[in-house]
Amino acid sequence: MSTQRLTMAQALVRHLSAQNTEIDGRIKPLFAGLWAIFGHGNVPALGEALAEVQDSLPTWRGQNEQSMVHSATAYAKQMRRQRIMAVSSSVGPGASNLVTGAATAYVNRIPVLLLPGDTFAHRASAPVLQEVERTDNGLINVNDCLRPVSSWFDRMTRPEQLITSLPRAISVMTDAELAGPATLCLPQDVQAEVFDYPDWFFEQKVHRLERPGASESSLRSAAELLKSSRRPVIVAGGGVHYSLACDELQAFVEAHNVPVVETSAGKGALPASHPLNAGGVGVVGSSAANAVVEAADLVLAIGTRLSDFTTGSRTVLSSVRVPQIHLNVAHIDAHRHNGIPLRADARRTLEELGPLLVGWESEKAHLEMLESARSTWAATVAEALAGSGQKRPSDAQVTDVLVRHADAARDVLVVAAGSMPAEGVKLWAPEHSGGYHSEYGFSCMGYEIAGGIGVKMALQEQASDGEVFVVVGDGSYLMMNSDVLTSVALGRKLVILVLDNRGFGCINRLQNACGQTPYNNLLDDGTLSDEGFPKVDFAAHAAAMGATAESVDSLEALQEALRRSRSERGTVCISIDTNAVDSTGGGSWWQVGIPAVSGRPAVLDARHQWQDAGKGRQAY
Fold it and tell me: pTM of whole model > 0.85?
């Protein structure tokens, strides 16, 4: 057997370079590149190996390990999980910084390969710099924090272990059901050790999207249930996108006149202007979508894990009020909430259901109800855009300006935390399936700018000249902003809108709704020095990192700034002051833990009223 004598690090990067994926009939490298911040745990061996393959596996330097994972996650999400990035860190804080990014990818079922450096396997020099030691277990170090947020986890203690573990990691990341982060811990000494790797380990391999089908009996049972319904509704989740099933979904609903509601991850499954698109569902959804679901006699949930924000804490969906079919490739999601499992690929199943449903469609009254609900929702939106008389504009009003400026056929909105995932799912109106990028599985503050870079990389790869609008609150910006520099350095243009309401406005509204006194959310409501919090000049801050930046003081000035941003070649940052009070209504009930005992009567009233609103509507 012919072999190649290589270090484990060299074998790793060469194996990654040999992996390919088929996209629209074209073969491309599976791994688009690798993000790295080098330290003593990865630069001597892995860094040397990466330099040798930079033409086939480019390395980008980020500013923070967490944000590098966010960029890799956003890229894979925007590429519909068909291409992947890797992330390398050193030992110690570099590795532990990966955990939040890994958790974000894990919750959203997005593949990313994590390659943290690790302590020496031989332990001759232990304890080493940045090593976390335990007194009860010699096998555990900081990298083990990645175990619960990894779909595959392994530690290479011998160089030949790579031959079995790395393909296993790749198989997990490319699996429609298991997709998520894979972690291979790389001890510093093992990275540099040599082994005679077989040539076949470096042969070119093509990965393709598998489409498992439902059993004939479950498919026919689902078809019979659908045919017996008169007021069905489809819930489109992220799985519609990852199955590349948007066209098939549109054909299906048009053939049978079935209204569609969308989750945050599923938004864009139908064009926003489509007459059967009722909008976002659940807590941050529209009144139209929630009303259509309330009137339904059958729910077909496609590619969604049915989290509490989607289901309204199981009062809108998954309340066991009507039959609910779960079309999902993942076992855990297909069998969730006492639903009827239809475990299969979304696109294949929609195609196979078609011949079994010839002649069936929703009743006319159901579609008339949808039109009425959409009219009611339009009035709610108009009221929100009119504002409540606050001196500063609302997030909704800023979003409306952005909607009117954007090219709905090619631009992308990136949001993640605070108020914007709600305003985005309600007001943003994409006409293409990739037009809304919301990280709302983990709702990770700080994802936005780093995620925008990953989205821009995907768009440029797809030869799209659409703008990437990153809308971020001042709280998220202050938490993680250094990738403004990365976007400038890599030539990945973003248009960043910083909405400054001086604090965590979204959670402040929740705090007030729970009957509490404002405390520790808005900057002026916390424990302060005598001088208080300063007014942050976000435009000057972004400009210091190379962005073209400005502050605006009105919606009209924002319109002009957005117009100017179109002609800029590099990253733009626009800051505008907003109010922390207004938000767009229309959502559903959401269960939160309001104290049963409190010295504040307002808290007790809120608990009573809040619980009464959901009482008897949940499944149990």
Answer: yes
